[in-house]
Task: structure prediction
Amino acid sequence: MTVTKPKRVTRAQLRQNQSAVLNRVSKENRILVTSRQREHRKVYLVDQEYLDQLTREFDSLVETLDILMNEPLTSRLLKFKKQFRRKPASVKVVPFDEAFLKL
Result:
């Protein structure tokens, strides 16, 4: 996934052209709404599919970090990786859905 800078619109532009701005969100993933007044915080308008994709990627990263923090498991995975690279035929790979059928 490539990260691009969001398009910017002012709050006034959003109020005047809400329909057009919201249509742009669905095409461009996200738009940053800004205000000239400093006390107003910036708001992102985000496409739902884009947000779901970001959430899935974030969850995947958290799971990966959780695995990497488990030292015994990480050690086993690294050994498996070395063995697989040296002799791929010596390692029996089982599809994920089949691995849990016997539990």
